[in-house]
Sequence to fold (264 residues):
Amino acid sequence: MLKIESIYKTFNAGTVNEKTALNGVSLHLKEGDFVTVIGGNGAGKSTLLNAVAGVWPADEGTITIGGVDVTRLPEHKRARYIGRVFQDPMMGTAATMQIEENLALAARRGKRRFLGAGITKAEREEYREMLKLLDLGLEDRMTSKVGLLSGGQRQALTLLMASLVKPKLLLLDEHTAALDPKTAAKVLAATETIVQRDHLTTLMITHNMRDAIAHGNRLIMMYEGRVALDISGEEKKKLTVEDLLAKFGQATGSDEADDKLLLG
Ligand SMILES: Nc1ncnc2c1ncn2[C@@H]1O[C@H](COP(=O)(O)OP(=O)(O)OP(=O)(O)O)[C@@H](O)[C@H]1O
Ligand SMILES: [Mg+2]
Fold:
């Protein structure tokens, strides 16, 4: 479903601020793979997701989504394949519109039917069922303006919207990091439910090693613009935080994992 082949990205090339953020990353995801991504600050995690989404062109390498070579496609043309949720709860929803209007907009993505035609009763029922799943009480507030919601509620709504029209890829960049622990757990549980139900191919960045271990069928750790660890199957199921730290040390020859990942 996703083939990332030898991607390189250097920012501010030729200046004192030159930074190679991706240094030959290759990664293949099968349909339905749920991959958690960890790594210290500046390891290149967000840059990897941005490369897939087409925020800017990569310097070298190719990216294929569901068999389509998107390497030269601009962001808005790749958007039809991709659902994204970022760290910032203010992004991804329209604050001045109602919850049901936001959902209706997401449902009409890439279609010719716009909101002008109104939301049907059947659609409203469908949205109510989806919102129930989040367990945040939003199903009773469907005509509330999104700007009135809490960060966690908005983030959960963004997640629903990103997955409403089943995307080929779901990209989550620390989407629970700005939330209080209880809400973060609810949004993470909703993520798990949606990803499993729709069999979504997913990349989820997190700074929480326990979340990275608990979710998904595969875990990658990035270090200095490369994939330093790639763990899946039975090995992933048995994994502990201690294993992860030890493996990180072996793979990179570095012992910075403790500070940078556990405390970072
Ligand atoms: N648009 C940009 N312009 C210049 N430098 C950038 C840009 N985006 C990322 N970088 C740099 O590339 C490196 C990798 O950044 P990236 O955001 O991918 O890290 P990250 O692994 O997501 O870290 P964090 O855990 O802090 O979010 C960093 O040194 C960062 O400063
Ligand atoms: Mg990041």
In short: The pocket of adenosine-5'-triphosphate (ligand 1) is lined by residues 11-12, 19, 21, 39, 41-47 (CB under 6 Å). Residues 181-198 form the longest helix (18 residues). DSSP finds ten helices and ten strands in the chain.
